Amino acid sequence: MDGRLAALQARLQHQFSDPQLLARALTHRSFSAEHNERLEFLGDSVLNLAVSALLYERLALPEGDLTKVRATLVKQEPLHQVAVGLGLSEFIQLGEGEVRTGGRQRPSILADAMEAVIGAVYLDAGYQIAEMLVRRLFEKIEISPRTAAAAKDPKTELQEVLQGRKMKLPVYRVAATLGAAHRQTFEVECEIVELGMVERGIGATRRAGEQAAAAAILLALKAKGK
């Protein structure tokens, strides 16, 4: 893993003082008990602050619209896009089951790993370096007032897409409940029966899991041109 980490650090433009932080950020819970979820939690907060500062500088919008734009930028789809641009999938450590079921390309796994990498950079070098990384990562992501108008949650967007095609609404089901009772996460499947498509998402609540699964389906639809 060490040699491969060197290649990723070059893409990130950050040389880790503690490479184990990066290794942890790339470790999915299916691979090891020493996984990336705590770093993901931290990276989410760093990402939100860095994007907030970026929006404050670039957009002269009222608070409500800035909040909508931020929500659109820090959700799964843009993070997945950024992770794909970095080629992050080739570095993620997954359990055999996840590999067999296409976990290496799953948007939720890539987006979560991207947040974990941001968290790892923050711990390794501090907020300023982490913020610079976020700004580099989002250079090719559109940031404009139009983003606020397009800000819809994934379930609503998916519902509108299917209704526009006169198709049945998606079916959501809880595939697994993970973690201790006081800190559960929900793995939810979203199925479009008429297209034979199923994707999964994970969230701290069932609703959050449904949103993540809907976002994964939307990405899959776009990728297939459906």
Task: Provide a concise account of the structure shown.
This protein has 226 residues and is mainly alpha-helical. It has 11 helices and 3 strands.
Task: Give an overview in words.
The protein is mainly α. It is 58% helix and 10% strand. It is built from eleven helices and three strands. It has helices spanning 2-12, 19-25, 37-58, 63-73, 76-86, 96-100, 107-125, 127-137, 145-149, 154-164, 206-224, and strands at 171-178, 185-192, 197-203. The protein has a three-stranded antiparallel sheet with strand order 1-2-3. A hairpin with a 4-residue loop joins β2 (185-192) and β3. α3 (37-58) crosses α7 and α3 (37-58) packs across α8. The model has no long low-confidence stretch (mean pLDDT 89).
Tally of helical segments? 11
Order of helices and strands: HHHHHHHHHHEEEH
Q: How are the strands of the largest sheet arranged?
A: 1-2-3
Class based on secondary structure composition and strand pairing = mainly alpha
Unreliable sequence segments: none
